Amino acid sequence: MVQLQAQPYAKPFDNYVAQGSSFSMLMFFFCCVLYKYDSLTASDDLKRKMSSEQKDDFLLPSTLLATVLLLSVAGSLSVAASLVVIQIGLERRLESKTSRPTQLAASAGPSSSLFPPTNLQA
């Protein structure tokens, strides 16, 4: 949340990639905690001593957890990849716009220069 408000990078694109990466790390950490929690409650002795209500509350389906983990990481990577493609397209468009006036001025010849040539020899 602090990174979302601070926006420490100069380009907005970099801020979005950082936020996506932070979300991916958060989901990975959360799923790791749940996996650890599941491994603690996966003991057969413990399962036999649990009531049906406790089993419903404390036992986690690992396929659902793996799906959440994979979708969150893949989703954040795909969003980051699409942002990279968009940023590359924007930079190419900006580069083509900035290079066009210099090409036109160079092809027009020295007579159309805004500043007359100066002799820098002393």
Write up this protein.
The radius of gyration is 29 Å and the shape is rod-shaped. α2 (12-41) runs antiparallel to α5. The chain has 5 helices and no strands. The model has no long low-confidence stretch (mean pLDDT 77). It has helices at 2-6, 12-41, 44-49, 52-58, 62-108. It is mainly alpha-helical. The protein has one domain (8-96). It starts with a helix and ends in a 14-residue tail after the last helix.
Secondary structure blueprint with pairings:
Blueprint: H1 2-6, H2 12-41, H3 44-49, H4 52-58, H5 62-108
Helix pairs in contact: 2-5
Task: Please work out how many helical segments DSSP would assign.
Answer: 5
- Give unreliable regions as ranges: none
| Radius of gyration, whole Å | 29 Å
Please tell me the overall pLDDT. Answer: 77
Q: What's the structural domain tally?
A: 1
Strand tally, please?
0
Strand count, sense and barrel status of the largest sheet are: none
Structural class by helix and strand composition: mainly alpha
Percent of sequence in beta strands: under 5%
- Pattern of helices and strands: HHHHH
Shape summary? rod-shaped
